[in-house]
């Protein structure tokens, strides 16, 4: 191994860590700085235009700095050598973790929050990843997530001599609907892909399996099936992130808030109302415009002050007169009520009953006649 030629005259390649469609990743030793790095060596060449695009995007990646990004240390875009030298992350890919079985929902939410925060930083720098998938996510030994192969679809496009003719590059399994239909691909496509990756972490299966075309078209027919038994904030985030319309998806920063539970909904941006220019000094007071009266309502008349004062003075007299009138009506009504009939009473007994009392009654009658 010590006699093997150095990559770029500096990097000694070691064991192969992984392989892809267009490149192999090796553990390598930087002989100048004496540190272990990851070397991604592309197997095919590119023309001058492709190499220039490769170099430009490599510089963009090298200019990004975030704890969740695999740092790019060096690159070469020469005719003989085309490679990237990156930070080596000791761990496994998210694809390997999913192959072992579904992940706990809370762990998925934490993982998704980390990756969404990385995408927010990337998008703030004007870059779209376009190929977010489990094999491009590295999990370090301490559980920290890294977004690797950032922009690799662009780099692969340069290597494969693709021009900016609207050709869509990415993995069909995680493509957004607008990528499949040939629409504009921007930041929402990364958010959608991350939503499918997190959904796969929960269920342990690919949401849209099948061959390239079959998998790509399936998302145009049905929406992803998000389990209902997961935590509410995770369920809410996945539903929003995998919306069919790009404009309905949250941004990467909003997705991080939803996944962490810091936010419960996505509030659309409301443009601020235009500010009116300040009024110039010594401007006459603005006169209040008359308010339109409702239909069939008489217009309020303004009385002179003297007449209004007279009406106020007469008010106590009117109230007193009205009170006397009410009292008089009540009294008349009370007097007009007829008295209740009196039950007849029997005359008191004046003596013994029957024939024994007759002489006394005749004597009383005679006395009354004389009088």
UniProtKB/TrEMBL annotation:
Class of this enzyme: transferase
Record bears the keyword Nucleotide-binding: yes
Signal sequence annotation: none
Keywords attached to this entry: ATP-binding, Kinase, Membrane, Nucleotide-binding, Serine/threonine-protein kinase, Transferase, Transmembrane, Transmembrane helix
UniProt xrefs under Gene3D superfamilies: Phosphorylase Kinase, domain 1 (3.30.200.20), Transferase(Phosphotransferase) domain 1 (1.10.510.10)
Enzyme Commission code: 2.7.11.1
Protein name in the entry: non-specific serine/threonine protein kinase
Protein species of origin: Saccharopolyspora elongata
């Amino acid at each position: 191994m010590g006699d093997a030629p150095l990559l770029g005259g500096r990097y000694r390649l070691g064991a192969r860590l992984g392989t892809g469609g267009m490149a192999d990743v090796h553990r390598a030793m930087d002989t100048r700085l004496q540190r272990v790095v990851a070397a991604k060596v592309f197997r095919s060449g590119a023309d001058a235009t492709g190499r220039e695009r490769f170099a430009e995007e490599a510089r963009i990646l090298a200019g990004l700095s975030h704890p969740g990004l695999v740092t790019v240390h060096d690159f070469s875009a020469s005719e003989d050598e085309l490679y990237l030298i990156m930070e080596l992350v000791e761990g496994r890919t998210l694809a390997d973790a999913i192959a072992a079985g579904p992940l706990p929902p809370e762990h998925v939410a934490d993982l998704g929050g980390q990756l969404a925060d990385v995408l927010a930083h990337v998008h703030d720098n004007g870059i779209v990843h376009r190929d977010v998938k489990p094999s491009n996510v590295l999990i370090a030994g301490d559980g920290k997530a890294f977004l690797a192969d950032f922009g690799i679809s662009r780099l692969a496009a340069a290597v494969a001599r693709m021009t900016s003719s609207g050709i869509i590059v990415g993995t069909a399994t995680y493509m957004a609907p607008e990528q499949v239909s040939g629409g504009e691909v921007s930041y929402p496509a990364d958010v959608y892909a991350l939503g499918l990756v997190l959904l796969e972490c929960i269920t342990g299966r690919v949401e849209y399996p099948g061959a390239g075309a079959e998998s790509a078209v399936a998302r145009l027919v049905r929406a992803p099936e998000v389990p209902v038994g997961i935590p509410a904030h995770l369920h809410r985030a996945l539903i929003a992130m995998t919306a069919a319309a790009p404009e309905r998806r949250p941004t990467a920063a909003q997705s991080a808030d939803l996944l962490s539970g810091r936010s419960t909904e996505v509030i659309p941006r409301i443009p601020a109302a235009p500010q009116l220019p300040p009024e110039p000094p010594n401007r006459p007071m603005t006169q209040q415009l008359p308010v339109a009266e409702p239909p069939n309502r008489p217009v309020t008349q303004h009385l002179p002050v003297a007449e209004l004062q007279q009406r106020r003075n007469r008010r106590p007299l009117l109230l007193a007169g009205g009170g006397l009138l009410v009292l008089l009506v009540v009294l008349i009504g009370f007097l007009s009520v007829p008295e209740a009939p009196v039950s007849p009473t029997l005359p008191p007994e004046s003596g013994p009953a029957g024939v024994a009392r007759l002489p006394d009654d005749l004597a009383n009658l005679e006395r009354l006649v004389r009088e």
